[in-house]
């Protein structure tokens, strides 16, 4: 009965420990099934024609389709070239990360009847035959919002829009619409070449669901993108860079103010080092330690023995030191007794062992005078034996 109860308790204990794991596995399985059954992932890319969020562009895409424009969304460079076909379509290029090279952009614009570029960078502008140039970011008003800008140009699409409410980047070109001043230089938020085949939209956010209904944003978007029966909406990705084998200079992806920021940080670091750095003053003059002769140590110890009247202790120290030096010079083992050392000394000096024992191991001096005489005597004896 005892064994059965123990086994049952063990099984129950293991089941209790396994319950959290089983619950976690069930929850994980449910999450996986929900993701699999939900179909495609939600489109959350800014200015994507399938994104219903405020920063998406589904509204303008659906309006264009309702007016008979075939909106073809492509994801790769090869798909874009194929969709442009015979060159009768409009290309809308939203390359916010500037994945495409200048050669790719040149081929795309050449294959489209009209190309609308969303805020291209300086590197991409070099691919265009027209003289487009980047002026800079348009500053916001005191409230931190973008103010409405009038067209003030001869382009029919811009004139139909009247005003624009978006904020963005100003460019210069043949026809500059919605002019804005940036650091004393004037540029436009919507630029076209002389025949209108290439347009630069410096404020692409006017296409977003959140701003399309403001001012004349919708009119400009529908006229600029809906001038042909087919609109190729192209959003490049990193795969387009890999397919060409052409790398992107990372510095071109950085905003212009990064250089100023790096220089400022470097200057701050130098100032911090000067402010908090350790000051190295003149060399400090320090007197050298006193050099003490070896004899002074022995003399000092002797005076201590003399002052304390330790004649016997001093004699024992002299005797032990003499025997140790004799043993070392005569190559006698360190563990040898005084008698064995004196035997070796007798063989080396020719003196009798009895004489050596009397002089070294004999009566210990009792006065300072006797100690001095005895010390001189054993010193002469040591010199005689080791010479």
Task: Present the secondary structure layout.
Elements: H1 2-37, H2 58-66, E1 70-74, H3 77-84, E2 90-93, H4 102-110, E3 114-118, H5 122-125, E4 133-137, E5 149-150, H6 156-161, E6 163-164, E7 169-172, E8 175-182, E9 185-192, E10 198-201, H7 217-225, E11 230-234, H8 238-244, H9 257-276, H10 294-308, H11 311-329, H12 338-349, H13 353-360, H14 368-386
Parallel strand pairs: 1-11, 2-3, 2-11, 3-10
Antiparallel strand pairs: 4-7, 5-6, 8-9, 9-10
Helix pairs in contact: 11-14
Task: Tell how many strands the DSSP assignment holds.
Answer: 11
Question: What share of the residues lie within helices?
Answer: 40-55%
Number of helices: 14
Strand content: 5-15%
Largest sheet: 7 strands, mixed
Mean pLDDT value: 82
First and last CA, distance: 97 Å
Uncertain stretches: none
Basic shape: elongated
The tally of domains stands at 2
Which series of helices and strands comes N to C? HHEHEHEHEEHEEEEEHEHHHHHHH
As laid out across the biggest beta sheet, the strand order is 1-11-2-3-10-9-8
Query: Using only CA atoms, what is the Rg?
Result: 50 Å
Structural class: alpha/beta
Tell me what the structure shows.
By secondary structure, the chain is of the alpha/beta class. It has 2 domains: 202 residues, no CATH class; 90 residues, no CATH class. 47% of the residues lie in helices and 13% in strands. The protein contains 14 helices and 11 strands. It has a 7-stranded mixed sheet with strand order 1-11-2-3-10-9-8. Strand 9 and strand 10 form a beta hairpin. The protein starts with a helix and ends with a helix.
């Amino acid at each position: 009965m005892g064994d059965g109860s123990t086994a049952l308790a063990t099984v129950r204990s293991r089941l209790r420990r396994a319950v959290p794991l089983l619950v976690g596995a069930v929850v994980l399985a449910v999450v996986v099934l929900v993701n699999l059954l939900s179909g495609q992932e939600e489109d959350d890319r800014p200015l994507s024609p399938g994104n219903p969020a405020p920063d998406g562009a589904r509204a303008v895409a659906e309006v264009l389709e309702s007016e008979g424009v075939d909106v073809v969304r492509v994801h790769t460079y090869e798909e874009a070239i194929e969709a442009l076909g015979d060159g009768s379509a409009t290309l809308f290029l939203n390359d916010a990360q500037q994945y495409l090279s200048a050669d790719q952009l040149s081929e795309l614009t050449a294959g489209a009847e009209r190309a609308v570029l969303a805020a291209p960078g300086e590197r991409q502008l070099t691919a265009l035959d027209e003289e487009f140039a980047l002026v800079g970011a348009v500053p916001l008003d005191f409230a931190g919002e973008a103010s409405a800008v009038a067209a003030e140009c001869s382009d029919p699409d811009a004139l139909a829009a009247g005003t624009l409410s978006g904020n963005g980047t100003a460019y210069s070109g043949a026809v500059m619409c919605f002019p804005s001043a940036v650091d004393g230089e004037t540029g436009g938020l919507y630029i076209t070449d002389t025949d209108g085949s290439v347009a630069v939209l410096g404020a692409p956010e006017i296409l977003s669901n959140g701003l399309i209904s403001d001012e004349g944003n919708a009119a400009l978007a529908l006229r600029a993108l809906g001038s042909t029966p087919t609109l190729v909406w192209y959003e490049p990705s990193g795969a387009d860079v890999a397919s060409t084998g052409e790398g992107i200079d990372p510095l071109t992806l950085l905003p212009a103010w990064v250089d100023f920021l790096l220089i400022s940080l470097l200057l701050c670091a130098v100032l911090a080092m000067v402010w908090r750095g350790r000051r190295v003053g003149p060399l400090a003059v320090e007197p050298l330690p006193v050099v003490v002769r070896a004899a002074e140590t022995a003399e000092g110890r002797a005076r201590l023995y003399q002052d304390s009247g330790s004649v016997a202790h001093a004699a024992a120290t002299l005797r032990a030191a003499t025997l140790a030096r004799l043993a070392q010079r005569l190559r006698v083992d360190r563990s040898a007794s005084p008698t064995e050392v004196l035997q070796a000394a007798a063989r080396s000096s020719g003196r009798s062992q009895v004489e050596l024992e009397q002089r070294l191991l004999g009566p210990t001096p009792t006065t300072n005078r006797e100690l001095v005489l005895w010390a001189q005597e054993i010193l002469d004896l040591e010199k005689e034996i080791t010479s």
